[in-house]
Amino acid sequence: MKLKGLGAGLISVWLSGFLLIALSFYGTLLLSPSLHNPYFPRESSTAPRIIIFTALHISSSSFDSQAIHSWLALSSQVKVVLFTQHNNNSSLTDTFGSRLLLDSTVDFTFLGTPFLHSMLARTEAYASDIAVLIDPHTLLLPDFISALNHAHHELDRDWLLVSSSVNIPRFPFHWDQTGHFWRQYNGKRVRFGELQKMISLQSNSSEEANMIMAWNNVDSPLHCGVLPPFLYQRGTHNQWIVNEALSCKRRFVFDATSTISSVSTGNAEKKFDSRNWEYIGNSHLGKLYGSLSKSYALPKLLKCNKRYILVTASDGFRTREKISACISRSKSRSLKLEPVKKDQAVSPLKLPYDLESLLPLVADKNRTVVLSVAGFSYKDMLMSWVCRARRLAVPNFLVCALDDETYQFAILQGLPVFFDPYAPKNISFNDCHFGSKCFQRVTKVKSRTVLKILKMGYNVLLSDVDVYWFRNPLPLLHSFGPSVLVAQSDEYNTTVPINRPRRLNSGFYFARSDEPTIAAMEKVVKHAATSGLSEQPSFYDTLCGEGGVHRLGDDRCVEPQTNLTVHFLDRDLFPNGAYRDIWLKEDVRGECEKKHCYVLHNNWISGRLKKLERQMMKGLWDYDASMRMCV
Ligand SMILES: *[C@@H]1O[C@H](CO)[C@@H](O)[C@H](O)[C@H]1NC(C)=O
Ligand SMILES: *[C@@H]1O[C@H](CO)[C@@H](O)[C@H](O)[C@H]1NC(C)=O
Ligand SMILES: *[C@@H]1O[C@H](CO)[C@@H](O)[C@H](O)[C@H]1NC(C)=O
Ligand SMILES: *[C@@H]1O[C@H](CO)[C@@H](O)[C@H](O)[C@H]1NC(C)=O
Ligand SMILES: *[C@@H]1O[C@H](CO)[C@@H](O)[C@H](O)[C@H]1NC(C)=O
Ligand SMILES: *[C@@H]1O[C@H](CO)[C@@H](O)[C@H](O)[C@H]1NC(C)=O
Ligand SMILES: *[C@@H]1O[C@H](CO)[C@@H](O)[C@H](O)[C@H]1NC(C)=O
């Protein structure tokens, strides 16, 4: 008995000694500053892999490399993905090394503003344990990683962390790249504690624009809704996501503002500059879509005596009282979120650009634009066409809206759009197909608009939205030279000349802004105005003569008064919808790729729905209307 007791005593002494040694060893590990990372404890092997996503607006001239330095310094487990329009900026990759990845696959508006839904969809392509979405001007300090680690290890369900930054437009320190710490401008090293203190003393939390979001299980969606095409960092979308994530209940949403020191140094973009409409557009989208509009209080992640505590609104009084003493010592900041107000009236949107001011914004260096004209019944097809243009990196497209619904819709999709006030009203939804009265009126808008643009000094490739593009035809079309109007042939018979009477397709043609073309287009428009037919016969009869008297060879015409040559495009490269029954082929895309087609026209079919169906069934469709984005 005695011996046994003694043995147990010895063992316990020995054990506790061992424990002490182990603990102190562990403590040393924690406290010893890592050479590369003076603010940090050493990383354990269970450190989560973190990817920080952000995007650069083309307009953000004041790109702040300090922010990215501060992120990469957080931990070697951090990678940064920067969405930009060009992934060839070697100065960026040289500065930041291989942990910075440039990604140019997301969609941007014509003004270079990235689409949030496109960015978030893309985040799933990167393997990580935690994804972070952050403003490119926000500096992070090490307690960010501690908060993420806490969430990663302690929460037993999927989560979404949100945190707001303080606004310090002129951050008084600079990053020492070799030493991996901040210095004052007199060269003195800044301690982490000083930084933290400085931040916690700031009473002005910045607006939700500078909200940080982080979430785990990156393959699982943040919310149950479908993100509308919000413009990144143009307001509303952060509230919207928090709203939706809360109402969806798939993730635990909490506010970690008081445990995360982050500084927004962005020279806070003024809301009331010329891009004000981008904010208004986002606010419209927020009102149009989404579910929750109640006020709410997020659970908060707090830190008390070096321990993290989660406090929810429903936690009892005692808990709150217990921690309140601790919190009041360091002023606790929290996120200010206004719920998206849904009941307010949505006033019509207007772009601050008309045709004249859009042209220089979108035209390429050859002063060429690609024009499409669309009414509301073709809005999905317009979007598919736009998505295709984006995929092919054709930046110089322009949309003429035939009605106000299309105009509003296009603004919300971030398209360069103008409204034709002379467009016929009352365009019927399903029956505006080839040959109908409606069709005749609509087509006349097209030639008139093209003429207007030519007169402003820009070349125009007119492409109907039912023309599917396989590759960019502009370089080829340019090669025909001046005084040549290049058009698709509508001839389907393979044994006859392609310039036969009335076979000029006015749904796909390239017109140069030169004297002969402008003079000839004026004749076309004049002819169409007095004709009871669509504009297509006016094109042919004016340019090739009635019955084709001005034909030259098998594929051209020369209009004698203006000397404009009309060149009909090779149908193997630019097939119309009836040529060689291409649309009946099993594999339309394969067939076209074999022929090296540039475009394929989805014409020679009657009815809007049949047309849509044919294009979708054959896989020549690039817009997912249910996800509201390009696919
Ligand atoms: C990057 O690519 C874009 C378009 O592809 C081009 O305009 C730009 O000049 C390129 N920049 C560099 C540095 O190569
Ligand atoms: C590359 O990025 C840096 C930092 O944003 C910027 O200053 C520079 O103009 C960019 N260079 C090109 C060619 O885009
Ligand atoms: C905080 O905000 C108020 C008004 O919004 C402003 O007058 C004040 O200068 C700000 N303080 C700091 C430290 O930025
Ligand atoms: C609009 O269309 C409807 C049906 O096609 C027709 O009855 C009505 O008169 C049209 N209104 C105008 C202003 O053209
Ligand atoms: C611009 O014009 C030049 C000269 O005509 C041509 O070589 C080039 O392909 C054109 N670029 C585009 C994008 O059309
Ligand atoms: C094509 O044209 C030839 C010659 O005019 C004619 O004999 C033939 O029937 C036409 N084919 C079709 C499918 O219309
Ligand atoms: C068209 O070409 C002919 C012969 O080359 C020439 O005599 C005539 O002046 C030209 N017309 C115009 C409008 O340039």
Detailed description of the structure:
There is one protein chain. This protein is of the alpha/beta class and 631 residues long. The protein has 2 domains: 283 residues, Spore Coat Polysaccharide Biosynthesis Protein SpsA, Chain A; 269 residues, Spore Coat Polysaccharide Biosynthesis Protein SpsA, Chain A (Alpha-Beta Complex). It contains 18 helices and 27 strands. The strands form 7 sheets. A 9-stranded mixed sheet has the order 17-16-15-18-21-20-24-23-22, sandwiched between helices. The chain has a 7-stranded mixed sheet with strand order 3-2-1-4-10-6-11, with helices on both faces. Strands 5-12-7 form a 3-stranded mixed sheet. The protein starts with a helix and ends with a strand. The site of one 2-acetamido-2-deoxy-beta-D-glucopyranose has 3 residues, from loops.
- Taken from the alpha-carbon principal axes, the silhouette is elongated
Q: Multimeric state of these chains?
A: single chain
Strand order of the largest sheet: 17-16-15-18-21-20-24-23-22
Radius of gyration: 31 Å
Portion of residues in beta strands equals 15-25%
Instruction: State the helix count.
Output: 18
Q: State the end-to-end CA separation.
A: 78 Å
Provide the domain count.
2
The secondary-structure class comes to alpha/beta
> Which runs of at least 5 residues are low in confidence (pLDDT < 50)?
17-38
Percent of residues in helical segments? 25-40%
What is the tally of beta strands?
A: 27
Bound molecules: 2-acetamido-2-deoxy-beta-D-glucopyranose
CATH class category of the largest domain: Alpha Beta
Mind summarizing the main beta sheet?
Answer: 9 strands, mixed
Transmembrane segments: 7-31
InterPro entries: Nucl-diP-sugar_transferase (IPR005069), RAY1-like (IPR044575)
Protein name: Nucleotide-diphospho-sugar transferase domain-containing protein
Pfam family, one: Nucleotid_trans
